[in-house]
Amino acid sequence: MSNSQTRGVATKRAYVIAIAVILFFWQVAAWFLPDFLMPDVHTAIVRLWEELNSAEFYEGLGNSMTRLGAGYGAALFFGILLGLVGGTINAVRGPLKAAIIILQSIPSIAWVPLFLILMGFGNLPIIVVVAIGAFFPTALSVMNATESVEKYTFLPHE
């Protein structure tokens, strides 16, 4: 076997071992905790199989993916936009970068109570929390990438 094939087999073996260890510790925890808190592995796999065969599962999955896509799309749009603005305009770079870094340190889940109060229950607060979670890294990455581009002065040809 070639070196790359050997690495592939070793990587697959590592994943199988990791999954087996995780399932083992899950089962051990299930023996000591009540069923409603930690079901055993077999019960969870049977329930997963039942859910995979129900229409409600796929409806809920579709709704979740829609919210995820909307939030991530908004984060990309605004993150790229503000990242480009901050990376190209010197006057706003410092304050914008500082504000993003400060707000990024707040966990996304901490925004949930505020958004529930402001927006009520429904899809919108979930979309906004997803957008906030992806906005800050996107904006900082675009800003840093834009700042690192070398600046050239182009002179017209004579």
Tags for this entry?
158 residues; mainly alpha; 2 domains; 79% helix; extended
Topology readout:
Blueprint: H1 3-32, H2 41-52, H3 55-88, H4 90-104, H5 112-119, H6 123-148
Helix pairs in contact: 3-4, 3-6, 4-6, 5-6
Low-confidence spans: none
Mean of pLDDT: 88
Number of domains: 2
Going by helix content, strand content and strand pairing, the class is mainly alpha
Beta-strand proportion:
under 5%
**Main sheet: strands, sense, barrel:** none
So how many helices?
6
Alpha-carbon distance between the two ends:
62 Å
The percentage helix is over 70%
Rg, nearest Å: 24 Å
Order of helices and strands: HHHHHH
- Topology, number of strands: 0
Which geometry do the CA atoms define?
Answer: extended
What features would you describe in this structure?
Helix content is 79%, strand content 0%. It has 158 residues and is mainly alpha-helical. Helix 3 packs antiparallel against helix 4. It is extended, with a radius of gyration of 24 Å. The mean pLDDT is 88.
Question: Concise description?
Answer:
Helix content is 79%, strand content 0%. It has helices at residues 3-32, 41-52, 55-88, 90-104, 112-119, 123-148.
